[in-house]
Amino acid sequence: MMTMRNSLLCPKRGGLLVSRCFSKQGSFTHLDESGAANMVDVSTKPVSERVAVAEARVRLTQQVYSLVKASGGSVKKGDLLWTVRVAGMMGAKQTSSLIPLCHPIPLTSVSVDLSWEDGESVCRIRASCSAVHRTGVEMEALTAASVSALTLYDMCKSYGHQISIESVRLLRKRGGRSDVG
Fold first, then answer.
1. Which of 32, 112, 141, 145 fits as disulfide partner to 85, beta carbons 3.0 to 4.6 Å?
2. Is it the case that residue 18 has pLDDT exceeding 70?
3. Side-chain half-sphere of 115: how many Cα atoms within 13 Å?
4. Each residue's pLDDT tens digit, 100-134
5. Residue 131: enclosing H or E segment and its boundaries?
């Protein structure tokens, strides 16, 4: 749980007010003493198996949902299901290029699975990532789920823009200092 403790003026950021955040483990690791962005040094962390699972929920209109289900995922732009899965896998591999302070991690596995909630016209995207490394893979799993959700939107938007990415969240992570879920 993060709580706001104090704020300071950061000379490296043009005197902008920067809030300092602290967790139960101590100071927020991505800010240095002056409040400037900082990439965490993971060199002393032990190498261990890291696994994370994230989920995105995408709500479609009933019309678009029915069309996708009836066509088996074949839409104007092509094979929706294949494209959404591959986009998520590619996104996971590019996380450190997209999220500024993430370390590049040699992923050992990435999977993206889609399930359909007929009563709600929702596609549930579940992304799993694993690696044997010094830092976790939750950002890679969250990126995979996010990129998959954006790709689903892109592939279906020609049928209507009333598509909503409702949530992206970490379901669980294992390895390292703390486990979640």
1. 112
2. no
3. 7
4. 899 999 999 999 999 999 999 999 999 999 999 99
5. strand 122-133
Angstrom distance (rounded) from CA 146 to CA 168: 7
3-state SS class at 30 = coil
Amino acid in the structure at residue 57: R
Average pLDDT over residues 31-53: 85
In whole angstroms, what is the distance from residue 143 CA to residue 181 CA? 18
Question: Catalytic site residues?
Answer: 154
Choose among 97, 88, 105, 179: nearest CA to 142.
Answer: 88
Burial 138-167 (b: 16+ CB within 10 A, else e): bbbbbbbbbbbbbbbbebbeebeeebebee
Alpha-carbon 46 to chain mean position = 24
Look at the pTM and tell me if it is higher than 0.85: no
**Strand pairing partners for 167?**
57
Among 43, 54, 37, 57, smallest CA distance to 139 is for 54
